[in-house]
Amino acid sequence: MKRMKDERLELQTLKNIRVAYIVLMLGVLLILVKQFTEVGTDVFTSPLFFVMIISNAVFTFKNIGVSIDYESTNKKKSFLDSYPNLIGMCVILAIVFGVLNWILTTEPILWEVVLSSTIFSVCFLIPFTIAYRKKKRMQDQDLDD
User: Which among 43, 80, 88, 97 could bridge 36 via Cys, Cβ 3.0 to 4.6 Å?
Assistant: First the structure.
């Protein structure tokens, strides 16, 4: 028996997977909110919290390719089209995060504020770098064709 390939069925399957993922993430989020109201900040050490963070990171990483691949090529140049501007934006975000962390923490420790703002900036810089390089690679391939 030969297996049939129908694009409509594949699209419907992908839509079903998307709905299942949304329901799963909402369920995890509701469980975490319930735990947060009962236990407090100990919920951030829960394995369920790490599962949510990792699954969202993988989902976002996989969607970078989809959003870059189908991006329109006849756009105007933006501020974030150059890599030094991306780095500058990540540094500015880290400084803002560090200042907010310093202000909102009851007993701020300098090395903790610097460490958390550095981690924050790296978390922004990595996906921006991946998207930037993929976009540049696609532009170079378009120029070669």
Answer: 43
